[in-house]
Amino acid sequence: MSSITVCARFRPLSSKEKRDHNDSICIHILDAGTLIFKDEKEEDHLFCFDRVFCQESEQSDVYEFLALPIIQDAVNAINGTILTYGQTGAGKTYSMEGPNILEGNEKKKGLLPRVVEGLFDCLRSSEKVYTVKLSMVEIYMEKVRDLFDLSKDNLQIKEDKIQGIYLSGVTEVSVLDPEEALQNLCNGIANRAVGETQMNMASSRSHCVYIFTIQQECTGERRLKTGKIILVDLAGSEKVEKTGAEGKVLEEAKTINKSLSALGNVINALTSGTPGKANHIPYRDSKLTRILQDALGGNSRTALLCCCSPSTLNASESLSTLRFGARAKHIKTSPRANYNRDKCEKKQLDLDICPVKDELYEMILKKLREKLEAEDVKLLEELFKIEGIFSDLSSAEEIESAYEDVTFRTVSSLHQALDELTRTVDKLKRENKDLEAKLVETERVIGVHRDNANEGVHFLDKILSVISLFMSMLLVCLTLEKMLR
Ligand SMILES: Nc1ncnc2c1ncn2[C@@H]1O[C@H](COP(=O)(O)OP(=O)(O)O)[C@@H](O)[C@H]1O
Ligand SMILES: [Mg+2]
């Protein structure tokens, strides 16, 4: 289990804040991770985070502390999520994208272009083969829109054992270098802007989700390692009443607030349950929390950047953002490496795996031939074929489990045969005893009776042959069991 990395970031005062509030600020940063916040009633609140970024902090500081460890993990197939949270105008998009994603201003560029460059740097320095895919969606009014294909305006969120939570049918663009990735991100952001003018929607009213899927082929291990980096620029967390919204805008704001409250509820549920006891986490209450299910308490290393204004003008919103961050700090997640394969790659792997399948098949038969009679090996080979054990193996794990499976099935069917033989022998013994008694009786009454004596000899022969068969089966069973253990 690991806890979420939570940081607070305060942007410089805006010109409006300077003008209206005379440079008055509500924070006092004590050290790298601690700050004192003065609320509207002049009361002090102490907050401890993993890091506090002050107004003078650089974009590169945020990247190095928050994103770099997540990139390194994702390359090793451990999922990572970075969220920016805070009221509109607090610096979420500035932290995430910077002033312009393609501008390439070394000092000002945000997490997104830095993650792209850092990721490709990391991949270039590795000797392994990777593919990087990119998706971009926006959650607006509880609908997930594909920003690489606007015709997909209501993507469904699904879950499977291997992939975890995923967006069914989302466009995934393969990118070969940072330039291609940035160009695609730029197109996605532009599509977001098209949506804004058409639907009169401000970017602060929707959540924007950037998904990088990094897949590494492990030829030695015969499986694929997949890591995901999800960056989320959340919608503004301000209260509806404060914005003076009306009509449709009010409805929008309510929906946004609903999904952010759902996020808050999930965080509350995750942090307030009895330790060791599973309590209900309302992930399904909103699209946002469902998409973030793995990031919040699941299979992901997660970082939260709480963006705030330092001005006393926005004290109450900043305080609620910092409280949100303090609460989230208690969430525990369980990041682990992901191994999987997709359909087309599975086909390729199947082809690769064939020689291994034959090798293993031959190896088992060779071992059996060393210990057993040719006839018995042939019988076992037949059994393998009937069971279809070797017909559809496509990974090292499946071969291993098939090997165990065939061992188990062969040994258990031999045990069954032994049981049957034992029962038959017991029955024959009983019949023979009866016969002997009858023979003794006959001899006593009328002397030696040839027919009965012959019958007795015949039965004794039968018993002896069954016992010898029984012994040889027992030998086969024991040798096989010893050998396959
Ligand atoms: N750390 C910062 N340094 C300089 N300017 C910033 C910083 N954070 C935000 N800003 C500026 O503040 C304004 C609002 O920021 P923005 O990122 O758009 O807010 P949000 O996405 O939270 O609504 C923008 O003009 C942005 O350039
Ligand atoms: Mg924004």
TrEMBL record:
Keywords: ATP-binding, Coiled coil, Membrane, Microtubule, Motor protein, Nucleotide-binding, Transmembrane, Transmembrane helix. Residues 3-331 form the Kinesin motor domain. GO terms for molecular function: ATP binding; microtubule binding; microtubule motor activity. CDD domains: KISc_KHC_KIF5. The chain crosses the membrane at residues 463-480. The keyword Transcription regulation does not apply. Residues 411-445 form a coiled coil. ATP binds at G86, Q87, T88, G89, A90, G91, K92, T93. InterPro entries: Kinesin-like_fam, Kinesin_motor_CS, Kinesin_motor_dom, Kinesin_motor_dom_sf, P-loop_NTPase. This is Kinesin-like protein. It comes from Nelumbo nucifera (Sacred lotus).
